[in-house]
Amino acid sequence: VFVLLLIVFTICASIWFFAPAKIINIYRGEDERNIWAEIMPFGIQREISKTASYKSPNVHWSPNKRFFSFSDFVREKIYDKEWFVKIVDLRSLKVKTIFVGTDKTSGHKWISNNVVRVYVNAGTGVRIYRDIDINEPEPFVAVDHKDPKYWVPEKTF
Cβ neighbours of residue 115 under 8 Å, at least 6 residues apart? Predict the structure, then answer.
């Protein structure tokens, strides 16, 4: 029995380290204010989000399935901004804010294992984006003016 438990533990630990998305289910709670993680083989659930604010319905996975991201509607007095893009490291289940923006923030997607592209509406039919490295120690805080060196216009064909 001990050997069998050791084998199961070793397999689960390997999956957790190399491919955590295979055993973790991420979902938004029914009240749309929480993000939950469930470790599927054991049925263990843990709330990931720290605020009681609305969360966007889309959870985005990094290409390597080690991280996932979500948008959190938060009004922070420090920045006076409304939307935070947050990532979660599935190995540690730690949440990190990588972007702080206004109500003009229109979405985000993973470009690589370490880069998230955040989109902002810049006017009627115009969308700009900024690529953000998730390893930066501080979040990128959007300013009210759209400085071209920080934003790239989205090309439409």
Answer: 131, 132, 133, 134
